[in-house]
Amino acid sequence: QVQLLESGGGLVQAGDSLRLSCAASGRTFSRYAMGWFRQAPGKEREFVATVSWSGDNTYYADSVKGRFTISRDNAKNTVYLQMNSLKPEDTAVYFCATGRFSGTQFYASGYDYWGQGTQVTVSS
Predict the structure, then answer these.
(1) Distance CA 93, CA 64 (A)
(2) How do residues 92-105 score in pLDDT, each as one tens digit?
(3) Which residues fall within 8 angstroms of residue 40, CB to CB, at 6 or more apart?
């Protein structure tokens, strides 16, 4: 049974940083791409970032490019999202997901297992 457990969310002020973690189990983690998505109240879930199986390839949504960094540690079965210069519009529930394939995936359909999410709230 594949499980993804996010942690690291919280309430911060604009300009602060947070690091989200997602611990995976139940699958050969290093074979698959990983991604982060987010969903704000009243909005659809949106792509944030993705990393390939090796960690060599990463892609970001334009809204977070230059501020967020996705990385992974295959030895620890964990993917991270370092979020700097946070803005109130970054407020959302953040979800990690494991991809169906090894390469980076931009769409939710490219992922088959999802975590429960962690709340990030950025006050102005």
Answers:
(1) 15
(2) 999 999 998 888 88
(3) 89, 91, 92, 93
74: Cβ contacts below 8 Å, ≥ 6 apart: 29, 30, 55
The C-alpha atoms of residue 64 and residue 73 are separated, in whole angstroms, by 21
Starting at the edge strand found earlier in the chain, the sheet holding 18-25 runs 3-7, 18-25, 78-83, 68-73
Which of 47, 49, 71, 72 is CA-nearest to residue 59? 49
∠ CA 71-82-122, nearest 5°, is: 150
**Residue recorded with tokens 């050969």:** 28
- For the record, the structure tokens of 47 come out as 């792509």
Return d(Cα 12, Cα 84) in angstroms, integer: 11
Q: What confidence tens digit (pLDDT) does each residue in 49-100 have? A: 999 999 999 999 999 999 999 999 999 999 999 999 999 999 999 999 999 8
